[in-house]
Amino acid sequence: MAVICLLAAAAGARSLYESEVQSHLYDIGDPPYATVAVHNVGKIAMTVSNIGTLGSGGWDGVLDPLTGLPAPSMSYPQGFGVDYLFEAALWVGAIVGRDTLVSSSSGGGWGVHEFWPLPYPEGDIKYRSNTNPNSPDYDSSISQQDFIAVYTDTIDDVNITGYDYLTGRLHRPLKIEVTQSSYAWGYDYAEDFIIVDYRIGNIELRDLHDVYIGLYVDNDIGREGNSYYGYDDICGFKDILKSQYIAGLYDTLNIAWAADNDGDPNPFTGSYTGVFSPTSVIATKVLRTPTDHNGFNFNWWISSWNEEDDWGPRKYHDDGIRIFYDGRLGTPGTDEDKYYMMAVDEFDYNQEETYIDRSTEGWMPPPANAMQVSNGGEIRYLLSFGPYDLGPGEILPLTVAFVGGQLFYDDTKMGTQPGKWRDFGDIQLNTLWATWVYDNPGVDTDGDGYKGRYSIFCMNPKIARIDTILNSPTDTTFDTVMSCTWSDTLYYQGDGIPDLNGASPPARPVVETFPYINEYNQGEIEVRWNGFRSETTPDQFSQRVDFEGYRVYMSRSGRPGDFTLITSYDMENFDRYEYNVNLRGWEIRQLPYSLRKLKDMYGEDFDPEEYYDKEHLYPVYNTSTGEFDMYFFTRHDWNQSDYYDTLGIHKVYPDQPYPSTLNLDTANMFYPDEVTEDGQFKYFEYRYILKNLIPSVPYYIAVTAFDHGLPGKNLPPLENEPSDSTEYVREFAQNSNSVVKEKNLSVIVYPNPYRIDGNYRQYYEGWEEPDQTAERTRALHFTNLPARCTIRIFSIDGDLIDTIEHDFPEDSPGSMHETWDMISRNEMAITSGIYYFSVESDQGSQLGKFVVIY
C-alpha cells in the first residue's frame, strides 16, 4: 500500500482542552526579558519573539542574537532583500462579568503590547534541534530549528503594556499564559513553511466564557528600502485547488494569502528581476483549531490614518453595520472593536472583488474608491476562532503554518496563458507538505484504526466484465468490474491527530580518519566509516529504510558553502516510468528497483539500460487487461556501486555477506567473524583515501548519507549537511600519534623561521586564517606530537614565555598537531629572536628551537 507521502507517527494525541498550566506571575519590579530568535534553516527567514509577535515590525534595528546580523522580518526566499511580513500578532478575547476584555500582542490600536515573558533567564526563548542526537539541544526536539517562548498577559504596568489611546482605557489582564513553539526545516520539501503552535492556557481560578482567538497579520510586501512597499498589497482566501497528484481530486487548502498586487515589474520593460522582485505569495494555513465545529472567520481591511479611507467589507446584521469607536469601518482599535471583529459571523470576499456590488447577499455597497482598493492597498487581515469556554488550568491549542510560494507572478506566462498570471501552483504544493508534516497521511497516530482520508487509484482503468444480476422480474442490477494496470490506496489527509514529523536523511555514518605521510612525502588521509545505522535505520517519516548512498566532501576552511564533493557511492537501482492515461504523461509510481529485483521480475537477461526513454520501451503483458503495459527505465542517481574499486569509495570487506543478525550484541557473541575488532559489523565498513594532500594545512572532511527521495512525489533525495560543525572532522595529513611513537619521530615546528612578512594568511599556504589581521590569528605550528604532552616556549635567555597543555585522545583527529598564537603568558606579542621549546610526555622529552623575524 502506498501513501501520497510516506509518513510515520512521532507524537501522541492531544486533547482539545489540556490542563496543568504553570502560573507565571511577575514579582513587582522584575523587568520582562523581551527578545527575538530567527528561523533561517529554510527558504523562509522569519523573526519570532517572546511577546506574542512574529516578524520584526515592532523591533526596529533588532539583531539576531545568534549571528549579530539584522533580524529579517520575513525574507522569502531569504537573502534577496524582499519582505513578506511586517508583523503578525496574537489576540485573545473573552467576556468577563459584564466587561469585554482582549489581550493583544500588537495590531489594531497603536502602541499596545500586552503579552510579556518572565525576567531573564526564565523568560528567554528556548532552542532545540533534531540535527545532532549527541547535542543537549536534541532532547524533545521536533524540527531542525525549534524555538519555544512562554509569555502571559498578567503585567498591568501601563509603562510596559501601553494603553488604548482612543478611550484612555488601561490593560485589564485575562490572566492567560501562552506557550508559543515554532518549527522550521531546511529540507527541500519543507523549506517553504514555518509551523507555529500556540497553547493558550487559563492561569486564573475562574472560568473564561465566550473566548475568541485571533491571528492578526500585516504583510507589507515589497523590496527592502522601497518606501512605497506595503501600500499595494492584495489578499484573499483560497479554499480548494485541483490536485496535482490525484486526477479528479481537489486539494483542500483553506489559506489566507497575500501578495504584492503586480510583483513590481520593471516599469520600462515589464519584466521581473527574479527573486529580487516580490513575485511570490505568502499564506497563513490553519492546521489546527481547538475544535472543528466552532466558528472560523476571515476578515480584512485597509488601514489608514485617515478615518474615511480606513475601510473593510461588512455585512448587515440585526443591529445594522457596526461603526468602530473612532468612526472607522476597517481597523478595530479598542477591546470592544477587536472582540466584535473576532466574534462576528462573517467571512469576507477576496480584496480583488471589492468593486463587485454584493448588496443582495447582505454586504454593504462597495466604497467610492472600490477599484483602487481592488487593485491593492495597506491591507491587514484577521483569522479568528471561537467561541470557547476555558476553565482554570485548561489549554486551547491553535496551530498555523506560514507558507511561501514562488512564481506567483511569472512574466513567461503573463499574456500567454489566461488565468496563469497569478499562479497558486507552488504554494499549493508547499501548503500540502505543511499539512502532511503536521498530520501524516496514512498514519494512525492515536491507534484507533483510522489513518485519514484516501483515494483508490486505478491506473489505466478498463472494463473487465459486466455481470447482469436479475433480482426480480422487474429489478436488474449491472455489476461492472474494472481492471487496472496498477492500483493502490493513496492517503492524502491524516487522521486529525498532530504528528509534526517530517522526512529526514539517513543517519549519518560514524567516521574515523587515519592520516599519514607516504614514502613520497605526500600527505594522505584514509577516511573510514561504518554505515550500520545509515543503512538499517528506517526513516521516521516513511518507516522504510530508504538509504541510497554516501558522499565524501572536503573543505579547507570548514565554512558553509566551501565544502567540495570529492566522490560518491550509491546503490545500483533504477526508476521505472509508466504511462498514466488519467494525467496523460509518464510518471514514476514506485520506489527505485534494484537490478536484482528487475531481473527477478523480467528474467536474468533483462538489462534496464536498453529501455531508457519513451522511444525505447519494454513491453510487459498484463493478464488482467489482456494488453501490453509499456515501461522505460532510468538510473536512480549514478549507480556508482563498485565495492572493489579502491580508487573510489569501497568496502573494507567486499566479500563479506549480509549480517546473520542486526543485533550487535548477538553478533559479537554468536557471529564473531562478522564483526570487526572494535565490535562493528564488517559488512558496513567503508573507506576512501584522500591523496596528494599538503601535510602542513588542515582539511575539513565530511561523510554524508543520502536517501533515494520520492521522485513520483517531487521529493528529492535528502542528505546530511556536510558543513555541520558537530559532524565534520578537522584533520591534518600528518603522521598519527601511533606512527610518531612507532617511528620515534621528532617534533617539527613550522614555519621556521617565522617571518612577519611571510604572508601565511594566503589561502594557498593556509597556515593562518585568511583575510585576518589581528595579532591573535598568527600561528606557529607543532607536529609529530604525542596525544598528551606539555609544550613550553623559552626565550634565548631561558625565560618561560608560554605553556601549552596538549591533550587529545590517542590518534583522534588533529591529535598530532598544535598551534601557538605567539602571544606570551603575559599577554604580549613576542619579538624577533631565537626561541627554544620543550615537549614533555610519557614518551620522554624533546628540545628544539625556532626563529622569529620581524
Biggest β-sheet strands, sense, barrel: 8 strands, antiparallel
Count of alpha/pi helices: 8
- Helix proportion of residues, in percent? under 10%
Structurally, how many domains make up the residues?
4
* Relative strand content: 35-45%
Rounded to the nearest angstrom, the distance between the terminal CA atoms is: 74 Å
Number of DSSP E strands = 46
What is the alpha-carbon Rg in Å? 33 Å
Q: Which structural class matches the secondary elements? A: mainly beta
Q: What does this 3D model show about the protein?
A:
- The chain folds into 4 domains: 36-436, no CATH class; 510-571 and 640-732, no CATH class; 573-635, no CATH class; 737-853, Immunoglobulin-like (Sandwich).
- 7% of the residues lie in helices and 35% in strands.
- It is built from 8 helices and 46 strands.
- Strand 16 (233-242) and strand 17 (250-260) form a beta hairpin.
- The protein starts with 35 loop residues before the first strand and ends with a strand.
Describe how the helices and strands are arranged.
Layout: E1 36-39, E2 45-49, E3 53-54, E4 74-75, E5 82-83, E6 87-96, E7 99-104, E8 126-128, E9 145-152, H1 158-161, E10 163-164, E11 169-170, E12 176-184, E13 193-202, E14 208-218, E15 222-223, E16 233-242, E17 250-260, E18 281-288, E19 295-302, H2 335-343, H3 370-374, E20 379-390, E21 395-405, H4 425-438, E22 454-459, E23 462-472, E24 475-483, E25 486-491, E26 510-517, E27 523-530, H5 532-536, E28 547-555, E29 564-570, E30 573-580, E31 585-588, E32 593-594, H6 595-602, E33 618-622, E34 627-635, E35 650-651, H7 664-670, E36 685-693, E37 698-707, E38 729-732, H8 737-743, E39 748-750, E40 754-755, E41 780-783, E42 788-795, E43 800-807, E44 817-820, E45 833-841, E46 844-853
